[in-house]
Write a structure and sequence with these properties.
With about 190 residues, the protein is mainly alpha-helical. It has one domain. It starts with a helix and ends with a helix.
Length: about 190
């Protein structure tokens, strides 16, 4: 990835984060977590209910499992018929991560598994549908953008910065689109 690719990734992250903030993606995923908590808690005796800490666990697990180059590229590669090696490695890593997150956040982390199933399943179908339409340049910026978002998530998890990582997700669509636009202009 050359200088143009770096600029595309940075612009995609800036514009994508602005769009994510405008669409209130972080707030919406937190609302989804609250809805899951209230649904789970309905009719449960005190002491067996989910807390706001559990909601944070659900949101964190969903982000950790869904945002990142391995899940995106692995699913797309599987759909493209290039094998599922990355997804197998990701599943092993996610298993260890789920154990660690469960120690901190409890059972709510398991809710992220349902989101992963839908998310990676849709990406695999998308990869199958796209066939060979995604050239390496688009995959490279997608990989780089996902890596930066994953790094931001790491900063959030470490408590270094409270970043609204979910709001960065539109950048994953904008980065490959940026490569296409630059290709048309040049």
């Amino acid at each position: 990835m050359g200088q143009a690719g770096v600029v595309i990734v940075l612009l995609a992250l800036v514009i994508g984060t602005m769009l994510g903030a405008w669409w209130r993606l972080e707030q919406r995923i937190e609302q989804l977590g609250e809805w899951a908590r209230s649904t789970f808690n309905r009719g449960r005796p005190a002491g067996t209910t989910l807390t706001s800490r559990s909601v944070e666990g659900f949101v964190t697990a969903t982000l950790v499992f869904c945002i990142g180059p391995m899940g995106i590229l692995g699913s797309l590669q599987d759909g493209l018929g290039q094998g599922n090696d990355q997804l197998i490695v990701k599943a092993i890593l996610d298993g260890f991560t789920a154990l660690a997150l469960s120690a901190s956040f409890g059972f709510a982390v398991a809710g992220g598994a349902a989101v992963v199933l839908v998310y990676q399943g849709l990406l695999t179908v998308l990869g199958w549908w796209l066939g060979g339409l995604l050239p390496p340049a688009e995959l490279n910026v997608l990989d780089a953008t996902g890596g930066i978002i994953l790094m931001a998530l790491g900063l959030r998890l470490a408590g270094i910065a409270r970043l609204a990582v979910t709001e960065m997700v539109p950048a994953l669509v904008l980065a490959p689109v940026g490569v296409v636009i630059v290709g048309l202009v040049t």
